[in-house]
Amino acid sequence: MTSAAHTNLVHDDIIDAIAGPGIGIFPDFLNTAQIAALRHDFVSLPDWQITPAGIGREQANHNNERIRTDKTRWLDGSTAPQQAYMTQMADLQQQLNRHLFMGLKDYECHYARYDQGDFYKKHLDAFRGRSNRRLTTVLYLNDHWQPEHGGELLVYGDKSKTPVQRIMPAGGTLVCFLSERFPHEVLPANRARLSIAGWFRVDDPITPALRL
Fold this sequence. Notes:
Blueprint: H1 3-19, E1 23-26, H2 32-43, E2 51-52, E3 71-74, H3 80-100, E4 106-114, E5 120-123, E6 133-140, E7 153-156, E8 163-167, E9 174-178, E10 184-186, E11 193-201
Antiparallel strand pairs: 1-9, 2-3, 3-4, 4-11, 5-10, 6-9, 6-11, 7-8, 7-10
């Protein structure tokens, strides 16, 4: 199967998942070479460019290590791997708008590094009627991840106290879900855990300091 044919099939699967249950898990969204390029791009960043992630918006934005301890760096398209990934997500945005009329206007994303023991407590990426984020994506960049490494993503239903999905962060896997519908959390891992977290929005992005 050609790369273009694979991409089209995955886009169809994502569209079906978002139109149906509102969430989907897609192993091998990117191939090994693409994941390796993004991982190398990420780990090549100097530590001072990867900063503790904040919570809250505007003046309320702050760090809270009781809620999350990961470190992030926003993608700006300054390298070839970033440009390639953002182009792929722009293509997906176009397909989502064409088939589901979602009105998505922008995609923003950041690298996320969870060092050993890091976590992110249960949270929502968007609150109904109070955020411009519509669709969350998580792409994993981890090489040779095993169940004993931990670091699973737990996804909950609207009113569920038990997870409806427990996802191992294996490299190449993409997770997509409606931002307002699915609380989720990241469990501590036993080794460094790398990913790209992103959001399709219905407006232009605001400055990183003001983001959730």
